[in-house]
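Q: Given only this backbone (373 positions), what sequence would you predict?
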């Protein structure tokens, strides 16, 4: 029987790669719905090719060939076996919750969902017996390594180090948008690529791992591994370390997440060769140079609304950077400032989360604009 899937964010980097995976596994998937943000042209091309019944885009008037539904309506369709949440930013949160309440399994490529509301989303998934299968390569690696979470001593998350790993602090501070977007290993969307340049992405992943695997922050380690071959590892209580390796391609974790628990040949291009890779290097992250990492740990350990603040300030500052309005180092400065001013709310409700998110975004923009004068 075919697995029935909807893809939220099918025109983005993860969504397009998911469709490439499905191209190779056509007899195994039926697409129920595809959704886009602003790129309705590409969505219409995808509708022509994949014939989903339903679709959504910001400009829904321009959709042709599929019935228009809202994201939440799409996530309420019980024929979905799985929904790939591949939208960027906070827009992923409410649809994910709707899908969970409808008992639909989630392949989650949207970090913000767990960073903003992991304490709501994970217990809800448990309550409804819904699987949350991570698409993020590091968490996908851990998911593949873990047999019994109670026997795990540490999670070891690898980081490529991004484009500024070997650059001076001065070079990094004055980096152009182009330099920040030149990621050495992974081809991803713009927001996440900038996050990788500041290591905020790794910080968000630490928070994501805390929620996905209910692991205390002092048991989540980050190690820089420039080759991006070891995608993450776990250390068991007996000292045994299990890692997941593979060439750096998002096709592999996407395919794993949407075909789980089965595995298929799919899109794999050539065999893995240790001899070809020849060496694997590891080093401690430079926490003075990449302050975002510790800011994320601090937010995670504080819990409550602190991670909402971290995420909102960061995302807003990244947008300003991408628009050419601020320098790279100001992103982390903005996050640090907003976190220092934030009144943490314990166990925020969904409404409070969205309220705080909105408020921090406004404050961040204001602060960045006034700081520039
Ligand atoms: Mg990742």
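A: Predicted residues:
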């Amino acid at each position: 029987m075919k697995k029935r899937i909807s893809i939220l964010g099918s025109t983005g980097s993860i969504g397009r790669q998911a469709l490439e995976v499905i191209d190779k596994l056509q007899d195994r998937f039926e697409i129920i719905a595809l959704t886009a943000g602003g790129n309705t042209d590409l969505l219409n091309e995808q509708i022509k090719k994949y014939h989903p019944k339903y679709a959504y885009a910001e400009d829904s008037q321009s959709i042709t060939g599929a019935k228009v539904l809202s994201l939440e309506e799409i996530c309420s369709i019980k024929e979905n076996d799985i929904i790939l949440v591949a939208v960027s930013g906070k827009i992923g949160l409410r649809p994910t919750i709707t899908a969970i309440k409808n008992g639909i399994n989630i392949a989650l490529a949207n970090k913000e969902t767990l960073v903003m509301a992991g304490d709501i989303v994970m217990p809800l998934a448990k309550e409804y017996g819904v699987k949350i299968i991570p698409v993020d390569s590091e968490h996908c690696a851990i998911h593949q390594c873990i047999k019994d979470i109670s026997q795990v001593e540490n999670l070891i998350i690898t980081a490529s180090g991004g484009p500024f790993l070997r650059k001076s602090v001065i070079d990094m501070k004055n980096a152009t948008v182009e330099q920040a977007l030149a990621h050495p290993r992974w081809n991803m969307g713009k927001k996440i690529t900038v996050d990788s340049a500041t290591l905020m992405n790794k910080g968000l992943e630490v928070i994501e791992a805390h929620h996905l695997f209910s692991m205390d922050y002092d048991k989540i380690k980050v190690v820089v591994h420039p080759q991006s071959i070891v995608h993450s590892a776990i250390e068991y209580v007996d000292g045994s370390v299990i890692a997941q390796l593979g060439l750096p391609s998002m096709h592999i974790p996407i395919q794993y997440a949407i075909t789980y628990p089965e595995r298929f040949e799919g899109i794999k291009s050539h065999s893995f060769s240790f001899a070809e890779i020849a060496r694997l290097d590891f080093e401690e992250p430079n926490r003075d140079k990449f302050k975002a990492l510790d800011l994320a740990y601090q937010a995670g350990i504080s819990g409550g609304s602190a991670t909402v603040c971290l995420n909102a300030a960061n995302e807003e500052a990244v947008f300003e950077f991408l628009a050419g309005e601020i320098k790279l180092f100001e992103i982390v400065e903005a996050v640090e400032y907003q976190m220092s001013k934030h009144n943490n709310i314990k166990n925020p409700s969904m409404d409070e989360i969205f309220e705080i998110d909105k408020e921090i975004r406004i404050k961040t923009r204001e602060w960045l604009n006034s700081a520039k004068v």
